[in-house]
Amino acid sequence: MSSRRRTLLKVIVLGDSGVGKTSLMNQYVHKKFSQQYKATIGADFVTKELQIEDRLVTLQIWDTAGQERFQSLGVAFYRGADCCILVYDVNVRKSFDTLDNWHEEFLNQASPTDPKTFPFILLGNKVDIDGGNSRVVSEKKAREWCASKGNIPYFETSAKEDYNVDAAFLCVAKLALAND
Ligand code: GTP
Ligand code: MG
């Protein structure tokens, strides 16, 4: 028998509208970036295969709508998730302040077996803007928030410049695999 084992992992991306959820996924999966903003409606997924040790992992990454009028996913959507990616924009204070809500919303909807150990990851996106001069949330603040939620891993990213995108999703895959 082959030692290569296939695993399908469900990952859900949450965060305010415009923080760059779709852009991060497009950069990761298609190596493409568009300046144009097109709001996500409902939810859709992309897949990406990667090899982690003896496992052939298929990441099924679900993109969601940050805009409130498009949010109506329901419990069934969240069920069976192996990891949740939270995204905020380091240049938009409100997108950081709403992280508590997204975190809670996920736990309420997905109701994982052990909410305390369920794997989340936080991405602080758009660090490229203005060379970092327009950022309003410091890395320290973000890391404090992560620590307060049980040591959530944190990455600063730029979907535009493809900065830390692969590293962040590799971390997601490993977290999801460990939780599978
Ligand atoms: P919703 O679908 O409404 O929830 O938004 P979203 O989180 O999917 O945001 P989206 O990826 O559509 O990006 C919003 C806007 O920000 C677009 O105009 C992107 O081009 C831009 N953007 C996304 N990521 C980055 C980044 O890392 N740097 C810069 N400069 N712009 C970005
Ligand atoms: Mg989107």
From TrEMBL:
SUPFAM superfamilies per record: P-loop containing nucleoside triphosphate hydrolases
Subcellular location per the Swiss-Prot or TrEMBL entry: Endomembrane system
PROSITE patterns per UniProt: RAB, RAS, RHO
Record's signal peptide: none
One example of a Gene Ontology biological process annotation: protein transport
Cellular component GO terms held in the UniProt record: endomembrane system; vacuolar membrane
Protein name: Ras-related protein Rab7
Originating gene: LOC120280593
Family classification: Belongs to the small GTPase superfamily. Rab family.
Matching InterPro entries: P-loop_NTPase, Small_GTP-bd, Small_GTPase
Pfam families: Ras (PF00071)
UniProt source species: Dioscorea cayennensis subsp. rotundata (White Guinea yam)
GO molecular function, one term: GTP binding
Domain of life: Eukaryota
UniProt keyword annotations, A-Z: GTP-binding, Lipoprotein, Membrane, Nucleotide-binding, Prenylation, Protein transport, Transport
Major localization listed first in the record, in broad terms: membrane
Its membrane topology: Lipid-anchor
Keyword Transmembrane attributed: no
